[in-house]
């Protein structure tokens, strides 16, 4: 067993002062039981806790650490930027460079605005879509997460054509009413919803490869269908690429699948590990934003020079090292290894993967949407999670989270992971 004395003491203290002891709920390990470890430092693919235990990390700070932790070029960029001052509240040159880099990688983006989190990016893109189309309703898909803004905290409606229920206390039903929640990968549900709600749907917002309920992929033609049907009804298609942007390809899911959304949301990787968000898209839509247009959106720290410098260093390194080819190779190797481990242990696992994102669901049936994902054996996942943690492998503390590879993962890390999984699965 690991020694966790210092983590345990810190968590006990944290519980006195911070709700649930954490500043973001999944960190509390509620879905798997037990208590979180506290990190002392992280470098490359490794995280070390305050008691000195080391883990191969597949959480990667929930996506941003695509180059591994504490990449020297990112750290150097942050230090250099900090020497010039940490925030100005007036334009700095990094913002222009960042906008140009995003535009060059995403041809769907004519203009882009920076903000401070993925939540802000999605919230602002929705407001913009509503202001531009002069319509109130939006479609989202169950299992897709777009941050915690009120009208997006709606997961499960009682039926495809009825009003959504708020997923959180404190969200007025009047807000949730404007959010229509449908199952992912179901074309008929979308068609029926447009037919039942003529000329009132502003936009569809979607994670093109949903990674917030584990990971499942769009069926062939599904994203094309979303693009067609929004255009046919005068609604906008918003790709939430906060997780997939610069990860599934340098040009994100939209490059990987060849789709041109009207608006896109970004975050995570583009901040190099610092707080960031961005949304961008068609110029005629983006020019609806203040100060040019009637849709208000702002931020004291938006375009923050440290975040921009860190993000630019990360994006430059990703491109310069052809990182996505390497991530694809690592992803395929991990998939093969973990699938083999599950098979030899006789444990039914659906291993879903797209590039460097993955999820192993403990179920014998394929997973294409949230309902399929819910069939997985979460008790089994809990045991697996803790077994892996004891073996020095840190997976996300929930069956319904994606895993992330970084360019810092080595073949040796994968071997350690696969042999640990083979051992742990035999005991499930
Ligand atoms: C993480 C995430 C968000 C929210 O971003 P925050 O920076 O945590 O606010 C939104 N959408 C998707 C797809 C995400 O993965």
Brief sketch in words of this structure:
The chain has 428 residues and is of the alpha/beta class. The chain is 37% helix and 14% strand.
Describe the structure in your own words.
By secondary structure, the chain is α/β, with parallel strands linked by helices. The protein has 14 helices and 14 strands. The strands form three sheets. Strands 4-10-9-8-7-5-6 form a seven-stranded mixed beta sheet, with helices on both faces. A four-stranded mixed beta sheet has the order 1-2-3-13. Strands 11-12-14 form a three-stranded antiparallel beta sheet, covered by helices on one side. Strand 7, helix 7 (222-232) and strand 8 (236-240) form a beta-alpha-beta unit. Helix 3 (93-105) runs parallel beside helix 10 (305-320), helix 6 packs parallel to helix 7 and helix 13 crosses helix 14 (411-426). The protein is globular. The structure holds pyridoxal-5'-phosphate (PLP). Pyridoxal-5'-phosphate (PLP) is lined by residues 117-119, 122, 145-147, 207, 212, 240, 242-243, 267, 277.
Comma- or semicolon-separated keywords:
14 helices, 7-stranded mixed β-sheet, binds pyridoxal-5'-phosphate, single chain, Aspartate Aminotransferase, domain 2, 428 residues
The number of helices is: 14
Bound molecules: pyridoxal-5'-phosphate
Radius of gyration: 21 Å
Distance between the termini: 18 Å
Helix content: 25-40%
Order of SSEs, N→C?
Answer: HEEEHHEHEHEHEHEHEEHHHEEHHEEH
| CATH homologous superfamily identity of the largest domain | Type I PLP-dependent aspartate aminotransferase-like (Major domain)
Assign the CATH class of the largest domain. Answer: Alpha Beta
């Amino acid at each position: 067993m690991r020694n966790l004395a210092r983590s345990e003491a810190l968590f006990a203290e944290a519980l006195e002062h911070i709700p649930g002891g954490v500043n973001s709920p999944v960190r509390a390990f509620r879905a798997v039981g037990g208590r979180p470890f506290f990190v002392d430092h992280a470098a490359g693919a490794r995280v070390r806790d305050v008691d000195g235990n080391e883990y191969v990390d597949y959480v990667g700070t929930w996506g941003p650490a695509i180059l591994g932790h504490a990449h020297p070029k990112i750290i150097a960029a942050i230090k250099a930027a900090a020497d010039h001052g940490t925030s100005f509240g007036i334009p700095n040159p990094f913002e222009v460079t960042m906008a140009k880099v995003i535009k060059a990688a995403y041809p769907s983006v004519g203009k882009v605005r920076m903000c401070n989190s993925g939540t802000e990016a999605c919230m602002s893109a929705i407001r913009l879509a509503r202001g531009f189309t002069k319509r109130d309703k939006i479609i989202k898909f169950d299992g897709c997460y777009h941050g915690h803004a009120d009208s997006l905290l709606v997961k499960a409606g009682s039926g495809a054509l009825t009003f959504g229920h708020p997923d959180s206390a404190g969200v007025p039903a009047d807000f949730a009413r404007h959010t229509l929640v449908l199952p992912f990968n179901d074309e008929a549900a979308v068609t029926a919803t447009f037919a039942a709600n003529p000329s009132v749907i502003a936009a569809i917002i979607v994670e093109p490869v949903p990674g917030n309920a584990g990971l499942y992929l769009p069926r062939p033609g599904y994203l094309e269908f979303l693009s067609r049907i929004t255009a046919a009804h005068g609604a906008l298609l918003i790709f939430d690429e906060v997780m997939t942007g610069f990860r599934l390809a340098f040009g994100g899911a939209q490059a990987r699948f060849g789709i041109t959304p009207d608006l896109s949301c970004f975050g995570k990787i583009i901040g190099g590990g610092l707080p960031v968000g961005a949304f961008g898209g068609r110029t005629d839509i983006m020019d609806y934003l203040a100060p040019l247009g009637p849709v208000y959106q702002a931020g004291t720290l938006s375009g923050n020079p440290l975040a921009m410098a860190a993000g630019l260093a990360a994006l430059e390194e990703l491109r310069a090292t052809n990182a996505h080819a390497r991530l694809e190779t690592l992803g395929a190797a991990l998939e093969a290894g973990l699938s083999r481990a599950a098979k030899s242990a006789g444990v039914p696992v659906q291993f879903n993967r797209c590039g460097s994102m993955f999820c192993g669901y403990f179920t014998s049936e394929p997973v294409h949407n949230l309902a399929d994902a819910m069939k997985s054996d979460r008790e089994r996942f809990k045991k697996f999670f803790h077994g892996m943690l004891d073996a020095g492998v840190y997976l996300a503390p929930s069956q319904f989270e994606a895993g992330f590879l970084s360019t810092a993962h080595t073949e040796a890390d994968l071997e350690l992971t696969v042999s640990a999984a083979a051992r742990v699965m035999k005991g499930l």
